[in-house]
Write a structure and sequence with these properties.
The chain is α/β, with parallel strands linked by helices. Helices cover 32% and strands 18% of the residues. It has eleven helices and 14 strands. The protein is globular, with a radius of gyration of 20 Å.
Length: 294
């Protein structure tokens, strides 16, 4: 079911996850009367999907005269939190889309202040179960994920192994060093390399490292250079769909792309090392490298 949005609906996003869900949901309505304010990765997504709908240049302007605010719930920026706070202060109904399976409470806190929307929207049963243990039941709604549907259609079925099979490593900032000197994402990479022989993959397998949208393009260059014995490269696919089309195996920490890969029929591994917290993705098909190493 496609939600029936008011004509004067404002949309505010920064992080890519919820932005994709929201924007592809709006696209499904066939309408083009949205009031949108986008920053960061969300701005690029908006322009690619709605090139003819100009973005507003501030929260004050995008919220002027609207009935409903629809936002993401990322933590790479405060803009979505600020938009909800401003909307609530102006008696505007608010909806927040949660795109993942972790840190639900933390998404709505800044500087110790909790700001909840009128409704929490989630897109699968795993997320609903988590939300039901945190938020009031009457505020929780399950909605369709048209972005996921679109991605799965574009990825297609798993292809036969080529002469140069690919393993896709979906990178992401971990934001913790787990009590060590090295950032978590590099510890996970090191653990993956240590466990790589246990996967028994073809010797000609190419390891493709796909950067997170928030990461600098040269972030992993030194790490790659320090491992010359591996057939490794930085993935330059135009989007995650193109990268997953070629991949026979997918690895990473807790990225949404791992779930997308599972649903596309790929074999997927979590690279969090044994000394890190357990993977918070609830999907049973996900294989932990630590279990193989045991």
């Amino acid at each position: 079911m496609i939600p029936n949005y008011p004509t004067n609906t404002a949309v505010v996003c920064h992080d890519a996850g919820a932005a994709n869900i929201i924007i592809y949901g709006l696209l499904k309505t066939g309408r083009s009367d949205w009031h949108a304010y986008m920053t960061g990765p969300a701005e690029k997504i908006w322009i690619s999907v709605f090139p003819d709908i100009a973005l507003y240049d501030s929260l004050d302007s995008v919220l002027e005269g609207v009935e409903l605010l629809l936002t993401g719930t990322g933590w790479a920026s405060d803009i979505e939190y600020d938009a909800r706070s401003l909307a609530i202060a102006n008696n505007i109904r608010t909806i927040a889309v949660i795109d993942h399976w972790v840190n639900y409470l933390e998404r709505f806190v800044r500087n110790g202040k909790m700001v909840w929307p009128d409704e929490f929207w989630l897109t699968d049963d795993y997320a609903m179960t988590i939300a039901e243990n945190i938020f009031p039941a009457e505020k929780i709604y399950k909605v369709a994920n048209y972005y996921l549907t679109n991605q799965l259609e574009n990825i297609g079925q798993k292809q036969e192994l080529s002469s140069s099979p690919e393993l896709l490593y979906v990178l992401e900032p971990v934001r913790s060093n787990w009590g060590k000197e090295t950032q978590g994402e590099f510890q996970a990479l090191d653990y993956f390399i240590a466990c790589f022989p246990l996967l028994n993959l073809p010797v000609e397998t190419v390891i493709c490292l796909r950067l997170h949208p928030s990461e600098a393009l040269d972030k992993y260059d030194d790490w790659v250079a320090a491992h010359p014995s591996f057939n490794m490269k930085i993935d330059d696919s135009i989007n995650i769909t193109e990268a997953l089309k070629r991949a026979s195996w997918v690895v990473g920490c807790e990225s949404f792309a791992l779930v997308l890969a599972l649903m596309a029929g790929r074999k997927v591994y979590c690279t969090l090392p044994p000394w890190a917290p357990n993977c918070r993705l609830p999907h049973r098909e996900l294989i932990n490298l630590g279990d193989i190493a045991k």
